[in-house]
Write a structure and sequence with these properties.
413 residues; alpha+beta; seven-stranded mixed beta sheet; seven-stranded antiparallel beta sheet; 28% helix
């Protein structure tokens, strides 16, 4: 182990994103004299926040479980918000950069030191000369001139706020899972979610860019496990859009399962029965090009007609063909083959098992170790739920860490 550094921080926070900064600021508000350190892999804090919501930052939702807690936190740090009828909450300026800058401003106000461009290599439990339990954190710092510096810091508490694996360009590469396993934690299998879905077939290149409103359903082995109304966007690889993103949360694969167990159905005319409308159109002499006109987009109409292989006008008045067209419009089926990669995913599903954490996200296996944000096994739908979890878990972890400081060190047994 070697000689320990003279300074032992009260709380060391690994990760300077939403969860990490909320932890640091909250801890300082509760216990101003506490010594803190943030270790951040990027060259500035809150990098991922700046890209949230296409730069507008949907920071919470009034329907989220911890809304009141994070709302009070925003008030305390000077973030002014606006709420829309659907419950989505944004900074009033609708600028993600403003949120990032305000959090950084609070870190500076509380004089919280930050190690930037620094990667945590390893965390070990150790003991000081009086046999008090502390944590030894090995760090690799990369300076602007390219020089790399290895050193160690020690802390009484550590808050692991490293994020999941979604958006690796922002520094989320799954480091926290390695630390969790080292402390004996179970990590629930991680998959990218809130992303587009790749589907079987080559017809999507003809539908690319088309958007339709309707009801999307997900079936697993014939059982409907997800339904949502919303907009679906066709892409060159399959389907995308908010409703599709939310659906990916239900596409976890257990042992022995594959994407072949899933089937997607889209009702592009949800709320109306189009069969009587089709009958009326044929009676009025609608041709093949007009049979679905004003019902759905021309590209979708052509896709459906081609799918049925109806080649001439006289077949359209056939009752069987009308029923087939109606069935397709109300039940357009696709077979998923994959969820898009971590690079495109907005969130991670899976992570540190919540059953192994207490109400303040402290490890039940190793006191003094806290896990927050996307590193834990929580995922919510689009609409501010995941950022709410990040802020709220960070706030609660800070309370747990500060409370532990008041109880003194744990002696080696």
């Amino acid at each position: 182990m070697g000689d320990l550094p003279d300074k032992i921080y009260d709380i060391c926070i690994i990760g300077g994103g939403a969860s990490g900064t909320a932890s640091a600021i909250s801890a300082k508000k509760i216990k101003p004299e506490a010594s803190l350190l943030i270790i951040e892999k990027n060259s500035f804090v809150c990098r991922k926040i700046k890209a949230t919501g296409n730069g507008k930052c949907n920071i919470t939702n009034i329907n989220a479980k911890e809304y009141q807690l994070v709302s009070r936190f925003f008030d305390s740090v000077g973030i002014v918000t606006r709420t829309y009828e659907n419950g989505l909450v944004y900074p009033y300026s609708e600028s993600a950069a403003d949120v990032s800058n305000m959090l950084f401003s609070n870190l500076k106000k509380h004089k919280i030191p930050i190690l930037l461009s620094s990667t945590v290599l390893n965390i070990d439990k150790t003991f000081d000369k009086n046999n008090n339990k502390i944590f030894e954190i090995d760090i690799l710092e990369e300076k602007e001139d390219g020089i790399k510096n290895k050193f160690t810091v020690c802390a009484k508490n550590i808050i692991i706020a490293t994020g999941g694996k979604a958006g690796p360009k922002f520094g989320s590469t799954g480091d926290g899972y390695r630390f969790a396993r080292a402390f004996g934690h179970r990590v629930v299998k991680t998959i990218p979610i809130l992303a587009g879905i790749e589907c079987r077939g080559n017809e999507f290149k003809y539908l690319q860019g088309v958007r339709v409103k309707g009801r999307i359903n997900l079936f697993k082995n014939g059982i409907n496990i997800f339904t949502e109304d919303g907009e679906v966007q066709f892409t060159k690889y399959g389907i995308s859009g908010i409703a599709v993103f939310n659906m990916t949360r239900f596409m976890r694969l257990n042992e022995g399962e594959s994407f072949n167990d899933f089937e997607i159905s889209i009702d592009i005319c949800n709320g109306i029965d189009i069969l009587p409308i089709l009958r009326a159109k044929t009676i009025n002499g609608a041709n093949e090009e007009d049979i679905l006109a004003t019902i759905t987009k021309p590209e979708i109409s052509r896709f459906i007609i081609d799918k049925l292989k109806i080649k001439n006008t006289k077949n359209l008045s056939d009752e069987n063909n009308l029923e087939l067209i109606s069935d397709l419009v109300h039940n357009l089926k696709f077979n998923p083959v994959n969820i898009r990669s971590w690079k495109e995913a907005q969130c991670t599903s899976g992570g540190v098992d919540l059953n192994e954490l207490d109400e303040n996200y402290q490890s039940k296996k190793e006191s003094g170790v806290f896990f927050t944000g996307e590193v834990i096994d929580y995922d919510g739908p689009c609409g501010g739920y995941n950022l709410t979890n990040a802020f709220a878990s960070g706030i609660r972890a800070s309370r747990g860490a500060v409370d532990r400081l008041g109880k003194g060190f744990e002696r080696q047994k």
